[in-house]
Design brief:
101 residues; mainly beta; 4-stranded antiparallel β-sheet; 0% helix
């Protein structure tokens, strides 16, 4: 059984027991989170929503919040003596999927 959910402006394929990283939600570790924007649900037969599957909900538990590794963005324009180096660290919330209903 799996579901396709929409969260943080992205789509994720989730199963029970999966651990995923979403954009920072500002929630305490151990708290419950619900994803109501379920785009598709497969429990033996595929149900595709238009645009959402009615009555479907995916529940998860917040494990922790943190910051990812630094990502380096380097741009160089050849023969122009022009270069730019920047980096950023994405804030995330790690969630364990507990139930698909």
């Amino acid at each position: 059984m799996y579901a396709i959910i929409k969260a943080s402006g992205q789509q994720f394929k989730v199963r029970e027991g999966d651990v995923l990283s979403f954009d920072k939600m500002g929630m305490e570790p151990g708290s419950e989170v619900e994803f109501r924007e379920v785009l598709a649900l497969n429990d033996g037969e595929l149900k595709v929503g238009t645009p959402l599957v009615e009555g479907a909900v995916v529940k998860g538990e917040v494990i922790n919040e943190g910051r990812d590794r630094k990502v380096i963005i380097y741009k160089k324009r050849r023969r122009k003596d022009s270069k730019l180096k920047r980096g950023f660290r994405r804030d995330f919330t790690r969630v364990k999927i507990t139930k698909i209903a």
